[in-house]
Amino acid sequence: MSRTYTPKASEIERRWLVVDADGQTLGRLATRVARLLSGKHKPTYATHIDVGDHVIVINARKIKVTGAKLETITYARHSGYPGGFREEKLGHLLERRPEEVVRRAVKGMLPHTRLGTQQLRKLKVYADKDHPHEAQQPEPETAAGGTRS
Q1: Backbone dihedral angles phi then psi of residue 141, each to the nearest 5 degrees
Q2: Do 136 and 54 touch, CB atoms closer than 8 A?
Q3: CA distances from 49 to 42, 74, 108, 109 (A)
Q4: Measured on CA atoms in the order 135, 140, 147, 69, is the torsion positive or negative?
Q5: For the segment 54-78, what is each residue's pLDDT rounded down to a tens digit?
Q6: Please, which pLDDT band fits residue 2 given cuts at 50, 70 and 90?
Q7: What is the pLDDT of residues 4-59, one digit of tens each?
Q8: Half-sphere exposure of residue 123, counting CA atoms within 13 Å on the CB side?
Q9: Under a CB-based contact definition with an 8 Å cutoff, are residues 50 and 7 in contact?
């Protein structure tokens, strides 16, 4: 009988990784980041425990979107009040808040549970190349156990 592998808290090793979004396609970048956040690149991966790394995404302003997605993809929200429905196109949100575009793309690829919320907290997105996490000594993403850039 096989048992579910559960890593102990002492076995979980978290690293800080930097992913440069300059020239990357939004969806491909989001899948790589979601994989790092969930810990699927580690041999100690378990589906029910957060074993992923902290990820810093820089240059979010310089991501690419293929096709007509800038005009066709819309983000919707509702305040709960009558007439409170708001809609925004991807192109407009990318100009206004590029960090939010990357964060929402990654959020959609993580579990829609408390585990996914916990994993999303380890994501830091910045529009430019500057970030305040130098004290954590982040490594480039290519050094993350065989992942590619």
Answers
A1: -65, -25
A2: yes
A3: 13, 32, 18, 16
A4: positive
A5: 999 999 999 999 999 999 999 999 9
A6: confident
A7: 889 999 999 999 999 999 999 999 999 999 999 999 999 999 999 999 999 999 99
A8: 30
A9: no
pTM of the model: 0.89
Q: Are 124 and 55 contacting, i.e. CB atoms less than 8 angstroms apart? A: yes
Tokens at 143, concatenated = 């050094």
CB 127 within 8 A of CB 88: no
Helix H or strand E segment including 109: none
Total Cβ atoms within 10 A of residue 143: 11
In sequence order, the 6+-apart residues with CB closer than 8 A to the CB of 145 are 41, 42
